[in-house]
Amino acid sequence: MESETIISKQFYSTDKTNKKEHTLQSSIFKINQESSKISIDKTSNSLPIFVLIGTFAVLFAGAFLVYKFQSDFEQFQLERIESMIGFPFLILATILFLFKAGVFLYKSFLYFKYKPIESVSDDLLPTCTVIVPAYNEGKLVWDTLLSLADSDYPQEKMQLLAIDDGSKDDTWYWIQQAKIKLGDRLSIYQQPQNKGKRHALYRGFKLGTGEIFVTVDSDSIVKKDTLRNLVSPFVNNEKCGAVAGNVHVLNNKKAMLPKMLNVSFVMSFEFVRSAESVLGSVMCTPGALAAYRNTSVFACLEEWINQTFMGEPSDIGEDRAMTNMILKQGYKVLFQRNSVVLTNVPEEYTGLYKMFIRWGRSNVRENLMMAKYVFKNFRTESKLGTRILYLDQTAKIIMSFPFLIFMFFFIATHPLLFFSSTLLSILIISSFSAFFYGKKHGFSESIWAYSYSVFYTFSLFWITPYAIVTAHKKGWLTRGLSEKKIEEYVTLEQYSQIAK
Q1: pLDDT (tens digit, 9 = 90+) per residue, 313-338?
Q2: Distance CA 312, CA 310 (A)
Q3: Membrane-spanning residues where (predicted)?
Q4: Which of 66, 78, 228, 276 is the most exposed place for a label (fewest CB within 10 A)?
């Protein structure tokens, strides 16, 4: 049996050398934290106000130009109809629009049918293994582990595991500190080298003894009732194989991008996944917070850890892959709106597009995998809704290149018509997201839905096409240490040498 990592008492002794080391550690961690605060405090000035004002100025200008150039739009439509390529494309675009509109109405209908499952009593709660894989998260992992330990969940029924995936920063130190504070409630392990999140989770699954496995990202904070709400569906529904948590943005007060993403996340989870949950077909259980029945995990665990794409081991999309394999077994995958986790998201453009590329590649890979079973008899209940959801996702992937080509053609031939029509579309479509967020969480932040749509449309439109052509590429993209952090960080191995 694999033994738990033991923390050396000597490291925490009170001799002079260790006092120097501890002082040095504290100084370095303090520098890192203060530097971090300075780098992320981007909303202390008036820039967000100017961005919001600029957003609406641009959107209303676009709406005015559509009205102003109405005759030009009519002429453009006539040219398309008379064109050998334009007319078939117009028919295809119309069909796709009607399909997307129909799917949206269908999801709206399902959304109003959705109700989260209420928490069951302590006696009925199953045993639960919570796995926290960590890589280069620093003190964030400490906050994550303490929030989990503070959960309103019977201690005797919860096993908490933290697994450091060969971090290059002070993550292991903070995991050890959490162990000191929580004692036997927390078991900690360290991978001999960085092997990727999938392998860290695999080790956790192998070590876990709970009836339910819960995975939580090491930069996330859960609320007190999150865990019990998350696992309750397994008690009420024996066909439930996995449950997705409700992800909100933790750092949405620190920068503009998190503010925008917070609105987007609410739409993605509280609207889209609510609809998917009614069909028992949530397409992806998020890495930030997800729960799995242990039997459903063990039934596909070896296939999951050995998954390949185009002959190479899969090192991304472990959450979507696990969800896919559980759906394939005939289990239902649900969503719990009342199970909230707050997670950190990128605050700069570079980190954001890398995250989206990773998600996009995973989406391409897993849609191909899903095609192998979704039109077969993979479950006894109705499969029509699941197939509609799949076709909706696939249509977005397939049509990304044709619409990219059309976009560049439209810009080259009629730039004013393109920008004005696009901005009017954003104004109309984003109003739903803004209203949905505002009704749920207040209208003061909901207007960021418009800024996010403008930002995504004009700076991230290339993500899906790029993800398609690079779907074979490996790499997490956002897991490494930044150059700034590397310069500030001093490894634990160097502490004793510097102290001397």
Answers
A1: 999 999 999 999 999 999 999 999 99
A2: 6
A3: 47-67, 87-106, 388-411, 449-469
A4: 78
